Amino acid sequence: MCKNLRRNLQEDRSLLAINNVPLYTGYVGLDFRITLKLLFFILGFTLIFFAVHFYNLLPDYTLTENLASIPWLFSAISVIFSIISGFVIQTKWQMWDRLIEASQKELNTLKHLFRMSDHFSEEVSRKLKKNIHDYITVILKESNTLDQKGQTVQKEFEDAVYLLEETLIDASKKFPESGVLSTTLREAVENQEYIIQNTNHRLPFVLRVLITFSTFSIIVASLFIGVSNVLYDYLFTLVIALLAYGIYLIIDDLDHPYRPGNWHLSMDPYREFLAEIKKKLPKES
Predict the structure, then answer these.
(1) Which of 137, 139, 132, 109 has its CA nearest to residue 23?
(2) Strand runs (DSSP E) across 66-162, as ranges?
(3) What is the pLDDT, as a whole number, of residue 116?
(4) Would residue 20 be called left, alpha or beta, if left means φ above 0 and alpha means ψ between -120 and 50 degrees?
(5) What is the average pLDDT across 29-38?
(6) How far apart are CA 249 and CA 142, in angstroms?
(7) Could you give phi then psi for residue 214, rounded to 5 degrees?
(8) Residue 163, class by beta-carbon neighbours within 10 Å (0-12 exposed, 13-18 middle, 19+ buried)?
(9) Cα(32)–Cα(171) distance, integer angstroms
(10) Cβ contacts of residue 96 below 8 Å, gap of 6+?
(11) Closest by Cα among 108, 271, 115, 111 to 191
(12) Residue range 198-222, pLDDT digits in tens
């Protein structure tokens, strides 16, 4: 029995290493809500633009007298906005890549534990599968809590980890070779703790206000760029405003990994795995 378990452990680790392909990319395509936000923005900006020109809120003589100074001022605002947004997007993008990697690793290790549970006695196998089921249930609940309130169900998570560890410790008393699975569990827990830590780490309030103010400044400042042809003026300012608003949406999206959007840490692979576990659990569980 021990020799078979040792051989199966080695074979399963090799298989996991070879087939460790991404389970999902986290990118769910152009979300309809993003498109709706952009359409509402274009509508609002169009109304403001033509209202400004219709009521002559920016007289021609003002634009003429400041023709030399306004582009320089606009350029300065644009540079500041570019530096801030570029820094934030790079930081958030790196964090996003690490979140995807941590999530994939955690799910792979949990699947590894689940497969190996079949090599134990019926009682230990049932108990281990039930513990993995409870662990994933807590993770799914935690993802909803993080998205909605920025908090975690820490006590439930710790209890789920404790039960898994207890089951593996009991199993290792009968099958010493299974002690390596405790290391596998620790890897899964470390990846989940990394996810919790980084999803809780949102943009500081001051930085968020600064980005919002910079975006607003770019949009308003674009109205001061005078072009003799109204149509060209509208298209020019609309493109600038859309770019600024689009950058803001990207930063806001990356700052909320669990919220549905273009960059969304999907929990569907966890739900699919949970459904698979439920099928193999005894009815009384």
Answers:
(1) 109
(2) none
(3) 85
(4) beta
(5) 71
(6) 25
(7) -65, -40
(8) middle
(9) 49
(10) 26, 254, 257, 263
(11) 108
(12) 777 778 888 888 888 989 888 888 8
